[in-house]
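Q: Convert this sequence to structure tokens.
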Amino acid sequence: TMENQLNHEKQCLMGSRDPQTGEMYFPPRPLTVDGSLRETEPCELPTEGTLYSWTILGGKAHFGQVELPGGVLIQCPLAPTEHEIDSTYVLEITGEGDTDWRFRRA
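A:
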């Protein structure tokens, strides 16, 4: 689920960060993945990244992986358009709900 991952006020996605290493996660997670059981802290994620991969499901739904600065790879919906690997994509908020977002080519 993608609930509470979108901050409408700041127009960004929310993730979590390991306060010791700086590693970021999306979706947000309460603990780090290295087995140390260190708690993470909430963080705002960059709103621009690079298209890593993409596909079209059922001839209509566009999905991809966008790599954000800091190494976070987000699997997400994409705006229906021509896609190109390594192109810049930006966050686009499409409505008022927590799941009303996608990335589009810049």
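The mean pLDDT is 93.
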